[in-house]
Design goal:
The chain is α/β, with parallel strands linked by helices. The chain has 9 helices and 10 strands. Strands 7-6-5-9-8-10 form a 6-stranded parallel β-sheet, sandwiched between helices. A 4-stranded mixed β-sheet has the order 1-4-2-3. α1 packs parallel to α2 and α5 runs parallel beside α9. The model has no long low-confidence stretch (mean pLDDT about 90).
Length: about 250
C-alpha cells in the first residue's frame, strides 16, 4: 500500500484532499504541525493512531518519517447518500452489507469476495472500528474489492438510522436470536449487519435492527468464522432473490 512519510508531505496530502486510509503518529511527538494533522484528519474522518518507535519503523520500512506515516487508499469510497442513490437507480431492492468491528484483514477480504460474487450492492463499515483496506485485505478479496462499492462512515449507528429512513430494512445475525436465517424474508430493500468473531454485533446496532436471526447449527462448535457466517447468510439472500426474479419474470 502506498505510504506518505514525513510531516510536510502528509500536511500537503491532507490539504489536497487525498484519499488517506489511516494516519500513524509517533506517540512522543507534539507541536503545531501535529496539532494541524489531528485537526485535518478529524475534519476528513481519517482515523489517527498513536504508535511507538518500533511500530513506526516497521510501517515506514526503516525510512525517515519524522513521526508521521500515512496509508494512502488504493480504492475509492462512496458517501452513504451517493451509494444509496446509485443503487436505487438500477436496482428495485437495495442489498447492502454492514460490517461491524471487523479487525481481521483475512476475514474482511474474504467477506468482500463473497459479497461481490453473491450480488451485494455495497459494503458499509466504520472508519474507526474496522481494519483499513490493506494489501492483506485486497489479496484476501482476490481482487473483488475493485468490483464492489465501499462506503466508510464515521458512525455505524447513524448510518443504520439513515438507511432505515430511506426505507431499507435492517437485519442482524446473533447466536442468541430465536428466529433463524431460514425464517427471514430477504427480498425487500435491506442491509445485513455482520459482526466480528471476537465481539459480534454491538448491542446498540442489534437494538436498532428490524430483525435479528441466528444461523441454525447442529454440531458442538460454539460459533462460525465471521467470513463463513457471512457467506452462508449472503448465499441465502442470493437464493431468495434469484427465486423471486424467476417468479416475477
Amino acid at each position: 500500500m502506498p505510504l506518505i512519510l514525513g510531516i510536510n508531505p502528509l500536511l500537503e496530502a491532507l490539504n489536497a484532499g487525498k484519499a488517506i486510509e489511516k494516519i500513524y503518529l509517533l506517540s512522543s511527538k507534539e507541536g503545531p504541525a501535529f496539532s494541524r494533522i489531528y485537526h485535518l484528519a478529524k475534519e476528513q474522518h481519517i482515523p489517527v493512531v498513536q504508535a511507538d518507535r518500533q511500530k513506526m519503523a516497521r510501517l515506514s520500512g526503516g525510512k525517515k518519517h519524522q513521526g508521521a506515516v500515512a496509508l494512502l487508499s488504493v480504492v475509492d469510497y462512496l458517501p452513504l447518500e451517493s451509494l444509496i442513490e446509485k443503487v436505487q437507480k438500477y436496482a428495485a431492492d437495495a442489498n447492502f452489507l454492514i460490517v461491524d468491528q471487523m479487525s481481521d484483514p483475512q476475514n474482511f477480504g474474504a467477506i468482500i469476495r463473497s459479497a461481490e460474487i453473491l450480488g451485494i450492492d455495497g459494503i458499509i463499515f466504520s472508519i474507526k472500528e474496522s481494519v483499513p483496506v490493506t494489501e492483506q485485505v485486497i489479496k484476501a478479496s482476490a481482487g473483488a474489492i475493485f468490483h464492489i462499492d465501499l462506503c466508510k462512515v464515521n458512525n455505524l449507528n447513524s448510518a443504520l438510522l439513515y438507511l432505515r429512513e430511506c426505507g431499507i430494512w435492517i437485519y442482524s445475525s446473533s447466536s442468541q436470536a430465536k428466529k433463524t436465517l431460514w425464517e427471514m424474508d430477504f427480498t425487500r430493500p435491506q442491509a445485513i449487519i455482520i459482526g466480528s468473531e471476537g465481539h459480534g454485533i454491538r448491542p446498540l446496532l442489534l437494538r436498532n435492527s428490524d430483525e435479528v436471526f441466528s444461523i441454525p447449527k447442529q454440531g458442538k462448535t460454539e460459533s462460525l468464522n465471521a467470513s463463513v457466517a457471512a457467506g452462508i447468510i449472503m448465499a441465502e439472500i442470493f437464493k431468495q432473490r434469484q427465486t423471486q426474479q424467476v417468479k416475477t419474470s
